[in-house]
Structure formats: C-alpha cells, structure tokens
Amino acid sequence: MNKKIQSALISVFYKDGLEPLVQLLHEQGVTIYSTGGTQQFIEKLNLPCVPVESVTSYPSILGGRVKTLHPKVFGGILGRRANEQDLSEMKEFEIPELDLVIVDLYPFEETVANTSDEQAIIEKIDVGGPSMIRAAAKNHKDVVVIASKQDYSLLENMLRDQNGSTTLEQRKHFAAKAFEVCAHYDVAISQYFTPKQDNYFLASIPSPKIMRYGENPHQQGIFYGQLDTLFTQLNGKELSYNNLVDVDAAVQLIREFDANRNAQPEYTFAIIKHTNVCGIAARASVKQAWDAALAGDPESAFGGVLVCNGTIDSSTANAINEIFFEVLIAPNFEPAALDILKSKKNRILLQQKQSVSSLYQYKSMLNGVLVQQQDEGNYEKWEEAGGRPSTDAERADLEFANLVCKHLKSNAIALVKNKQLIGKGCGQTSRIDALRQAIEKSKQFAFDLKGAVLASDAFFPFNDCVQMGHEAGIEAFIQPGGSIRDKDSVEYCQQHQLALVMTGMRHFKH
C-alpha cells in the first residue's frame, strides 16, 4: 500500500547530508515539525518549520532532556490511520498525523571513545530518540522512519522517483534498519555499564561485509567488524574468509613480540599457514628475521600469510618477492619496498595501524556461544626443575619457544634454536606424535638440534618426550607441569643434566 508523506518530524544530531532531503520535502508540500538545533538548521535554510513546542504546549525542559516525550508527539507517530478509534482520539486531542520520522541518536559510542568523563557519557544516553524511532518502526504500515544519516539520500531518491510516496515494503525495510540501530545502541550502553559478560551474551557489530564465500566455495561467509581501524590496505584483491582467519592468527602472534623490548632493537618475522606458524625468527634486522623465518620451513611458506613488527625495506621486499604469498602485514613499508611488492596486483599488503586488543575470544558452539578471556602472558612462574638451571641463551630461546608454541594448535611442540623455529608439531592426537613431527620437520631442512630447546603447550604425561628430545640433541625444555607423573620427566632431566622449566601456565589452542 502506497502512502504519500504529508508531514514529517525531524530531530537529528547529525545534520550533514540533511539539507537536500529537507529541501525536497518542502518542495513536495510536506509540513515539517522540529525542535532544538534541527529546527534552527531548517530555519537557516529559509524553510518553514513548526516547532514541536507549539504542538505540545511544553518547552524543552530539564536542560534539553525532555523535548519530544509527549502524548501529542507519540500519538502522531503511533496513531493507526485505519483505526477509527485512534483517528477519533487524535482529532479530539488535536494530535497531528506524522507520516515521516527522521531521528538519529546521541553519539554515545563516540563519546565513550573520546572521554572518560562519566557525566558527559551519561548525557549522551538518548531517551526520546530511541522511543520515537521504535514507535515509528512499530507503526511502519503508516509511518516512514529514518534512523541514520546513511539513509538520507536513499529516502530522497525514493521520494523524488515516487512523487513523495513510499510502499509498505519500503517502510518495512526502513523499520527493520531502525530496530537494528536501536538494538546496537542499547548493546553499546549495556556494555559500558557491564563491560564483562553478565546475564546475556551481548554483541552488536554494524556494517556486515559479505565475503565471496566462506571457508569453502559452497559456504556463505560474512564478516562483522571494522577492518579499517586495524589496517590500511595498500595493495591487492579483497580479503577472503580464509585470509581473515589467517590474518587474525598472524596479528595475534606478532603482538607477543615487542621490537623495542631489548636494549638492542630486535625484529620478529613470522609466516602463518592455516592459522599455524610455520616459520618465525627474531633478528637484529627485518631482512635477517625474514631469511631465518623462511629457512625454518621454506616448503610450507608457499601461499602463506606473512607478518612483521618492523618496517619493510627494499632489501627485504626483494627477498620476499621471490616467493608466492597471499598477505603481508607490517607497521610500515618504505616507498621503494611498496613499488617492488606491488608488482603482483593481487598480492594483499596491509599496513597495521594498531594492535588487536580484544579482551575475549568467541566460538559458536552447540547453538550457543563460548566466551573466554584471551590467553595473555607467557608463564606464571619460572621453576628450574631439571638437573641444571637453563643458561641465559637457553632462557631467551625457551621464552621465545613458549610463545610460539602458544600459537600452535594443540597438541603442540615447538623446537627453537637462536630464536628461530626449526621444527614444530601441531594438531596431533598425542604429544609424542607432535614431537615426532617436529623432529622430522627439523631433519627435513637439515637443522642440528644440538643446543635447541623444546616447548610444549601442556604437561608431559610421561618422560617419553624429554627422552626422545634428548636423544635428538635437545638439552633444555619448557612445559607448564601439572601432571601426576611430572616426576618422571623431572627425574630424567635430573639424571641427564638437562634444563627443565615448569611455567605453571598451560597454552592449549584447539
């Protein structure tokens, strides 16, 4: 059913983009009601505007907290045009019909982001706005509701093309968007007052991005999030579902390594394949870090996602340019390096603007949602439980290996030497299988395990891992401990003068 707009209530915080729509409404003979700053905006355009106060007979009170909360306003929005009782009461109480409601909401999220002043934040909790939006959306059979400035031009074009009329389908579409706006707003306020999950799982992320497909071509994929706050894309095709999964794994890993934590600068380069790190190293220069990371497993690096915590220079770019990769992430790129890397138009280059800082992780599970805190930290304690304490060089490698192991799928083993991953086993159904895989990987690329260290994401249930590692040349181990048979591994290390560190912190990643 088509409805021609004859009256409109306009009360918005954001005026940008509003002028052409207001001009069109005036040209189409629409009576415009408004209040406050919006009224002044319309009057400055030399357009007629009826103050809401003249309808309600009440001024704006309580410092502007109460302007439109009045039966004459809500009666005009909620009155059903096909209901004789409603029409009779509207006539009796001189309530004008309102066919169009253009209302946005106070910028609550922006205020929270820009100030810690609680009073300023509280004042940006809109009351009348959501109420009018919900009322208009509820009565969408008769009323058009616009709850976001993003829809100003859409409505303008619609009214121009349809001579001031809208269809029921169009009004229902705007109503659905309006309820989404209100729901998002309420979630943001609730999260401010209750930042931790309490009685409900609350999440609202606007602007869904439709992916080409999901994990496989027959699956639909959608991303909810604001990539622009994290990255500037400098080159390449659109990120795919699988790209995003690997990019997340990459940035979660690289945030563990601070380029300036030591007296001498140290840069870390990592290669991610199917969310697991297959190559990583820390060195004095970005180029050296890349060379060492690639050497750890040049075979698996093909088609991977690369991430670094230093500036990509032309020397590094030339070296990287020799292999095929999907994505490269770095905080900065030298102009000459960009020229080299942009030689392949589909290659995705992301300049990371800030670290990922979410406090929680989420998984869909059994028609519900699992929520947990991020796995922060490396170890809770540093207990030297072996036959000798770890040396300074071993400790540096053990700390490095433990962080790497934390980002491998469980069961996981990481073998590290001189802050270079030289073997890894992950996603195995037993820890000994993970170690076998790690040792075979190191042999594949001819690494000498003499002097290497071994990290395990969980405890050793038997002494078979330390024994197998020792026989391969490893003399220092790090694990969380916590097995009822910890003493088996401890005794083996003590008997063979091996270093064994118990951290008290498990790093399962399923």
Can you lay out the helices and strands and say which pair or pack?
Blueprint: E1 3-4, E2 7-11, H1 19-27, E3 31-34, H2 36-44, E4 50-51, H3 52-56, H4 71-78, H5 84-92, E5 100-103, H6 108-114, H7 118-123, H8 128-138, E6 144-146, H9 152-161, E7 165-166, H10 168-193, E8 209-210, E9 222-223, E10 231-235, H11 241-254, E11 267-273, E12 276-283, H12 286-296, E13 304-308, H13 314-320, E14 325-330, H14 335-341, E15 348-352, E16 360-365, E17 368-373, E18 383-384, H15 392-406, E19 413-416, E20 421-425, H16 431-444, E21 453-456, H17 464-471, E22 476-479, H18 486-495, E23 499-502
Helix pairs in contact: 1-9, 8-10, 12-13, 13-14, 16-17
Structure, described:
- By secondary structure, the protein is of the alpha/beta class.
- It contains 18 helices and 23 strands.
- The strands form 6 sheets. A 6-stranded mixed β-sheet has the order 10-15-14-13-11-12, with helices on both faces. A 6-stranded mixed β-sheet has the order 18-23-22-21-19-20, sandwiched between helices.
- Strand 14 (325-330), helix 14 and strand 15 form a beta-alpha-beta unit.
- Helix 1 (19-27) packs parallel to helix 9, helix 8 (128-138) runs antiparallel to helix 10 and helix 13 (314-320) runs parallel beside helix 14.
- The two termini are 54 Å apart.
